[in-house]
Amino acid sequence: RLAGSAHDKGFRLARHGRLVSTNDEALTRAKSGDPGRLWIIAESQSGGRGRNGRVWSSPPGNLYASLLLIDPAPPRRAPELGFVAGIALALALRGVLSGDHRLAIKWPNDILHDGAKLGGILLEATSLSDGRFACVAGIGINCRSHPQDTLYPATNLAAVTGGAVTAELVFERLSTAMAEWLEVWAAGNGFEMIRAEWLSLAAGLGGRISVSRAGQSIEGVFKTIDPTGRLIVEQASGEAAIEAGDVFLLAQ
Ligand code: BTN
């Protein structure tokens, strides 16, 4: 079902009941020639995916949304979209939670409230057979419930506010913020403005973290992200630049 343009922000919106995954749906649409700037929303997902091959539990009541963009930037700059989406999401949620500054982004783009995960972003990009380049920012926000037994401690908006925050309200704010920050990204000086804003919202900056990937883990101080979005961790032996992994904030 196409519900027309998403509130004059230059997006189209396709709402679904249950889908396997809104990211899959966005990629399928891209392959069929969709021009992009399309939001896909589902009420629930039967095969919701998280980062690093994890399952994203997707019962009704939470937000499951994917934004499809075609050729938003040269392919090598695609990872920047994850940071754009992270900023938009953090600021949208600060809007919903009346400026609550306990909201922060954990690298690469998890949204935390008081250190507990409220949601995350799965960025996927692929070259299409017609030569175009498709980027999908898939966003999941725990509005009404969160899974137990997760890698990270988790929470949901209803628990945080003691009231109801609907997926619809979060999406409205997210869509507005996304339009704004996509414009900053397109108009701005490469990645620099995005990087600066992201760092101002970052959880654990200057503190000790541990980063794990493929069974290996390293510990050090979270210094910054570099101009390509890599995580820079300072260890006694020098600086490590990390492209992918799971970050845990350590007690200071
Ligand atoms: C993570 O933190 O691991 C990323 C979670 C991303 C979940 C969202 S829900 C909407 C979109 N569709 C999916 O299958 N995954 C993303």
Across the major sheet, the strand order is: 1-2-3-4-8-7-6-5
The first-level CATH class name of the largest domain: Alpha Beta
State the helicity in percent bands: 10-25%
CATH superfamily of the largest domain: Bira Bifunctional Protein, Domain 2
Per the principal axes of the C-alpha atoms, what is the gross shape? globular
Compute the separation of the termini in Å.
49 Å
- The overall pLDDT, averaged over residues, is 94
Radius of gyration: 17 Å
Low-confidence stretches: 1-5
Structural class comes to: alpha+beta
Overall CATH architecture of the largest domain: 2-Layer Sandwich
Strand and helix order: EEHEEHEEEEHHHEEEEE
Tell me the number of helical segments per DSSP (H or I, 4 or more residues long). 5
Largest sheet: 8 strands, mixed
| Tally of structural domains | 2
Strand content: 25-35%
Task: Describe the 3D structure.
GO terms for molecular function: biotin--[biotin carboxyl-carrier protein] ligase activity. It is an enzyme of class 6 (ligase). Its EC number is 6.3.4.15. InterPro entries: aa-tRNA-synth_II/BPL/LPL, Biotin_CoA_COase_ligase, BPL_C, BPL_LPL_catalytic. This protein has 252 residues and is α+β, with helices and mostly antiparallel strands. It has 2 domains: 2-200, Bira Bifunctional Protein, Domain 2 (BirA Bifunctional Protein, domain 2), CATH 3.30.930; 208-249, SH3 type barrels. The protein has helices at residues 22-31, 80-96, 157-161, 167-187, 192-200; strands at 2-5, 12-19, 38-45, 63-70, 103-106, 110-113, 116-127, 133-141, 208-213, 216-225, 231-235, 238-242, 246-249. A hairpin with a 2-residue loop joins strand 11 and strand 12. Helix 2 packs across helix 4 and helix 2 (80-96) crosses helix 5 (192-200). The radius of gyration is 17 Å and the shape is globular. Mean pLDDT is 94; it is low at 1-5. Bound molecules: biotin.
